[in-house]
Design a protein that fits this description.
- The chain is an alpha+beta fold.
- The protein has a single domain, classed as VC0802-like, CATH 3.30.2130.10.
- The chain is built from 3 helices and 8 strands.
- Strands 1, 2, 3, 4, 5, 6, 7 and 8 form an 8-stranded mixed beta sheet that branches.
- The chain is globular, with a radius of gyration of 21 Å.
- The termini are far apart.
- The C terminus is likely disordered.
């Protein structure tokens, strides 16, 4: 029996009706912690050795190497003069650990921040995600994140959670 386009269209509609789509606005509600650390994003040559000043054991740091560059995020007060740097960042930590199967975590943070005119620098680790925001935009970021349903707490000192 040959199906007509009309029969195929009805079959497609029935199939689509059975698919459960996520509800609009059902993004995850997260617990975020704002660190007091003042951070910098540094760019070095791709073949450069990782400098000793970037290997701090306390506070937040992240080192990424690609064929094009060596990027370092670290405390801004350890970065020497003459290095290509963008200073003046604070970091929001997403409470983790996060399961690798979760989706929409960064989108649920990035979307309200973008709508509020707050640019971000995102970093993921094995356990969780971190979102860096420029110092002058921290209050705007906190307001936008809370309005999106996230809980935001400020850390009292480096490495501790409120």
């Amino acid at each position: 029996m040959k199906e007509t386009p009309h029969v195929l269209f009805v079959a497609l509609l029935l199939m689509l009706a059975s698919v459960k789509l996520p509800a609009q606005g059902n993004s995850p509600q997260l617990n975020l912690f704002l660190s007091q650390d003042k951070l910098a994003v540094v760019q070095l040559d791709a073949k450069a050795d990782i400098p000793a000043w970037a290997q701090g054991k306390n506070g937040f740091s992240s080192i990424s190497r690609t064929p094009q560059e060596l990027s370092i995020v670290c405390a801004e007060d350890v970065v020497p003069q003459g290095v290509k740097v963008e200073a003046g960042w604070r970091v929001f930590k997403v409470e983790g650990p996060l399961d690798f199967s979760l989706t929409g975590i960064l989108a649920s943070i990035a979307t309200p921040l973008a709508k509020a005119g707050v640019s971000i620098f995102a970093i993921s680790t094995y356990d969780t995600d971190y979102v860096l925001v420029k110092n002058e935009k921290v209050q705007d970021a906190m307001t936008a994140l809370r309005a999106a349903g996230h809980t935001v707490k400020e850390e009292m000192r480096s490495g501790s959670e409120d």
